[in-house]
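Field log, afternoon session.

UNIT: design team B
ACTIVITY: writing a sequence onto a fixed backbone
BACKBONE:
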């Protein structure tokens, strides 16, 4: 896995960037789902 190999090589900037990217995708998905639910209901 990309994060695991980056952590093993102590590339903390890349690890942090990947985690922030994953976090951002989750937040965007959550906002989108909430918006769609409001439209449906």
């Amino acid at each position: 896995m990309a994060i695991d190999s980056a952590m093993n090589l102590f590339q903390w900037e890349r690890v942090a960037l990947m985690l922030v990217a994953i976090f951002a995708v989750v937040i965007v998905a959550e906002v989108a789902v909430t918006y769609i639910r409001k439209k449906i209901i």
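LOG NOTE: The mean pLDDT is 85.
NEXT ACTIVITY: expression trials, pending approval
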